[in-house]
Amino acid sequence: MMDEAKINALGDELYQALRTGSTLAPLTDREADITIEDAYHISLRMVNQRVELDGEKIVGKKIGVTSKPVQEMLSVFQPDFGFLTDAMVCEDAADIPIAGNLIQPKAEGEIAFRLKKDLVGPGVTEQDVLDATETIMPCFEIVDSRIDDWKIKIQDTVADNASCGVYVLGKNEVDPRDYDLPNLKMTIYKNGEFHSEGLGSAVQGNPLTAVAWLANTLGEFGIPFKAGEVILSGSLAPLIPVVAGDEMSLEIEGIGGCSCRFV
Fold first, then answer.
1. pLDDT, tens digit, 9 for 90 and up, residues 48-96
2. 3-state SS of 159-196?
3. DSSP 237
4. What CA–CA distance (Å, rounded) separates 73 from 91?
5. Which superfamily does CATH assign the domain made up of 4-262 to?
6. Phi/psi of residue 11, each to 5°?
């Protein structure tokens, strides 16, 4: 286990990179024996700085790097996990500034879950997730990395709060029990043109499986899911780099969509 002083120093570096819009050399290049557990404690320090210094509140959790296309793009072959704060939430159809806000953003189309009761791992099953979910909705997560050129290994992205940027939730929330989640089809458009598509099964075979994995992984660190939280279940299609002027939209068949524009 990395010593606390080093964990705090690296967490503070990532926090400063976030606030100054700058990037760092990969932590895995500098700390050869960094573990995922070390990385998780670094991310906690970074997130706690956002809470304590900036007054942000934790409003949910996220899993990332769940689908094969994303894993191959980033050369990271297991999921990452992180925290969502109220400062990351954007309205549907929002204009999202890049300058002073994001460094090297990429858009992901996802299914988001809103919980109606607490979930505490380990031991959480897909059925437990379904029972604890109030609604699901379309979501764009705009991931961002404080690591140079996205040159990340799993420890880098976990330390960097799972490369969280901001996220957009669609207005239409539906009961997941009414849908076949693995077969939900999402279509993604960039600047009004078809870009890509994916099924719910892209995330570990079923979004419920991904959310259960996240509940159990965080449960090992003593972190519960809480009623009212939003859980992002992972990208259904490859990551899409975006720049100022780009417009992104998506539709989930039978549910609805969401959109955002970068300025």
1. 999 999 999 999 999 988 888 788 888 887 888 999 999 999 999 999 9
2. HCHHHCCEEEECCCCECHHHCCHHHCEEEEEECCEEEE
3. S
4. 28
5. Fumarylacetoacetase-like, C-terminal domain (3.90.850.10)
6. -60, -40
DSSP for residue 225: B
Which portions of the chain are predicted below pLDDT 50? none
Instruction: Say if CB 106 and CB 239 are below 8 A apart.
Output: yes
Judging by DSSP bridges, how do beta strands 185-190 and 193-199 pair with one another?
A: antiparallel
Beta bridge partners of 58: 85
Contact 25, 153 (CB under 8 A): no
Per-residue model confidence (pLDDT) at position 72: 85
Which ranges of the chain would DSSP assign to H, the alpha helix? 4-20, 27-30, 36-54, 68-74, 126-132, 154-159, 207-219
- Cα torsion 112, 117, 120, 126 to 10°: value is -60
Buried b / exposed e over 2-26, threshold 16 CB at 10 Å, is beeeebbebbebbbebbeeeebbeb
User: Two tokens at 14?
Assistant: 């990532």
Domain spans in the chain, listed from the N-terminal domain onward? 4-262
Query: 80: closest CA among 14, 159, 147?
Result: 159
Place of tokens 């490369």: 163
Return the residue matching tokens 């419920």: 208
